[in-house]
Design a protein that fits this description.
The chain is mostly beta strands. It has no helices and 13 strands. It has strands at about 10, 15-20, 25-30, 30-40, 40-45, 50-60, 65, 70-75, 80-85, 85-90, 90-95, 100, 105. Strands 1, 2, 3, 4, 5, 6, 7, 8, 9, 10, 11, 12 and 13 form a 13-stranded parallel sheet that branches. It is globular.
């Protein structure tokens, strides 16, 4: 997914704490701590550092993510991604080189 098709981007210089809710597509390049709820797509960019429990439709992890994920459609961990936490999803994709520590339920 290219950045032009993403509705909102949290930039590298932003640190955010709290609860995020949205419906379309969001990319996090900065730091976030809290909870995230969406029916859309969440992308943790290569420079992103997220510590959150997440309910989502689709998630793509390119950076660091700590927390539990419940994805209705798909979880994708790219080769630059690091995921620490338990995941529940019908479709789990982990690229060669990615790091995943946790349990998965499919």
């Amino acid at each position: 997914m290219n950045e032009e098709s993403i509705d909102t981007v949290i930039g590298e210089d932003i640190q955010f704490r709290g609860k995020l809710t949205f419906n379309n597509a969001l990319k996090i390049k900065g730091a976030f701590k809290g909870t995230i709820e969406t029916t859309g797509t969440l992308i943790v960019g290569e420079t992103g550092q997220v510590e959150a429990d997440i309910e989502t439709g689709v998630i793509v992890v390119e950076g660091d993510l700590k927390g539990n994920i419940n994805a209705a459609e798909k979880i994708s961990v790219r080769k630059t991604g690091k995921l620490v936490g338990d995941v529940r999803t019908p479709d789990l994709e982990i690229e060669s080189g990615a790091k995943f520590s946790g349990n998965s339920i499919m």
